[in-house]
Amino acid sequence: MSIWEKNIRKVVPYVPGEQPNMPGMIKLNTNENPYPPAPGVIKALQEFKADKLRLYPDPTAKLLAYTLADYYNVGKDQVFVGVGSDDVLGMSFLTFFNSGKPILFPDITYSFYDVWAELFSIPFERPKLDHNFRIVKEDYYKKNGGVVIANPNAPTSICEDLDTLRDIIEHNQDCVVIIDEAYVDFGGTSAIRLINEYDNLLVVQTFSKSRSMAGMRIGYAFGNEKLIKALNDVKYSYNSYTLNQTSIILGMEAVKDKGYFEECTSKIIKTRSRVMGELKELGFSFPDSKTNFIFATHESIPAEELYTALREEKIFVRYFKKPRIDNYLRITVGTDDEMDALIKVLKEYIYNKK
Ligand SMILES: *Cc1c(COP(=O)(O)O)cnc(C)c1O
Predict the structure, then answer these.
(1) Residues 35-54, mean pLDDT to the nearest whole number
(2) What is the pLDDT of residue 333?
(3) Count of beta carbons in the 10 Å neighbourhood of residue 39
(4) Which protein residue has the closest C-alpha to ligand 1 atom 11?
(5) What is the best residue among 81, 156, 206 to mutate for testing ligand 1's pocket, by most ligand atoms within 8 Å of CB?
(6) Which residues pair with 298 in a beta bridge?
(7) Domains of the chain, first to last
(8) pLDDT for res 17
């Protein structure tokens, strides 16, 4: 191995769900929203003047940041925006976790957290969720360099209540606590209201799931002014222009249409509860989902087998071959028609095995 090769930063990258592209496929593997972005987003994109692209975007992305501040009723200096919540979270790890002490996040959670920790050489520990995939809050009472909790959690779909989060934050006043709320709009309770009580709390959300804009890459965070300033200082030390012109404008349009947003999320919640009933009849069990996916295990057929059987019918769901969760499927809630097709294939497969 040459010397330059020895000096390369070596990382094991995060593996996102695959993005197959086949005619007639049903894609329920990456928790995308099955409905289009708000009509105002589509209109603004059509009317976007491409000649503006010769100019740099506003580095503060203030049209978007202020619209978010307004919508969520927080101060203008309590908002940070980034290129998807992955960018916001990665930047947060880099900014806040420098104590040298291990940061804490559950053994089963979003699989990007350990990748960022490795990338930035942040030590970490992973307290185990209990047998029902619930957080054991006492595990977070020990000395640490920071806490990260996805709430609702992925891939379990479970939402812990605000009292649990509050208790964890109360016990961690000497480090930054990050709550990743990628799925909170599908029935969870947001911790946004706590940012004025705890100056060490950062709440992160995204346009990728509930606002149907995964392809646009917009994420944001709310927190105390000092946290937001620290994030911006790091951002401006790395890349001043993270959000492009279209993200800023289209993101703003998405936030403005509260009615459409609520209509789409409630449709997904309704479909979710119907499909949960049908899956139960087929012999599946799952935690109560507060997300746009169902984390299901079958009473007799291994998850990997069902995953393969669905794939053969061009229905893509997510399967994680990992300890404790390797008998579960993570199924994104799609349209009613897509879910009918899923249930039909599952029903036939399970029936033919009997
Ligand atoms: C989807 C997801 C994200 C990242 O979403 P972006 O598309 O980068 O905004 C972050 N955290 C969790 C738990 C997610 O499921």
Answers:
(1) 97
(2) 98
(3) 11
(4) 182
(5) 206
(6) 284
(7) 3-36+259-353 (3.90.1150.10), 58-257 (3.40.640.10)
(8) 84
Among residues 44, 25, 56, which one has the least CA distance to residue 255?
Answer: 44
Best CA proximity match to 350, nearest among 294, 310, 290, 291: 310
Question: Which residue matches tokens 């101060």?
Answer: 75
**In the numeric block, which tokens belong to residue 110?**
């979003």
Cis before 155? omega within 30:
yes
The finding on whether 82 has its CB within 6 A of some atom of ligand 1 is no
Strands (DSSP E) along 79-197, which ranges? 79-82, 103-104, 124-125, 146-150, 177-180
Q: Using CA atoms, how far apart are residues 243 and 84, in angstroms rounded to an integer? A: 9
User: Across residues 181-199, what is the average pLDDT?
Assistant: 98
Q: Is the CB of 214 under 6 A from ligand 1?
A: yes
Helix (H, G, I), strand (E, B) or coil at 25: coil
Residue 81 has pLDDT above 90, yes or no: yes
Q: Whose CA is nearest to atom 14 of ligand 1?
A: 182
Banded model confidence at residue 352, pLDDT cuts 50, 70, 90: very high
For residue 202, report the phi and psi dihedrals to the nearest 5 degrees: -120, 125
Residue 259 has pLDDT above 80, yes or no: yes
Task: Please give the distance, rounded to the nearest whole angstrom, from the Cα atom of residue 296 to the centre of ligand 1.
Answer: 20
- Do 292 and 268 meet the contact criterion of CB atoms below 8 Å apart? yes
Amino acid (1-letter code) at residue 196: N
Report whether 290 contacts 272 (CB < 8 A). no
Mark 243-281 as b/e (b = at least 16 C-beta within 10 Å): bbbbbbbbbbbbbbbeebbeebbebbbebbeebbeebee
Contacts of 112 (CB under 8 A, 6+ apart): 14, 86, 89, 90
Reported as a pLDDT band with limits 50, 70 and 90, residue 58 is very high
Backbone phi, psi, residue 158, to 5°: -85, 140
The candidate with the shortest Cα–Cα distance to 63, out of 255, 207, 232, is: 255
Q: CA–CA separation, 93 vs 81, rounded Å?
A: 15
Structure-token match 């812990």, residue found? 160
Instruction: Say if residues 227 and 200 touch (Cβ distance below 8 Å).
Output: yes
Q: With 90 as the cut, is the pLDDT of residue 214 above it?
A: yes
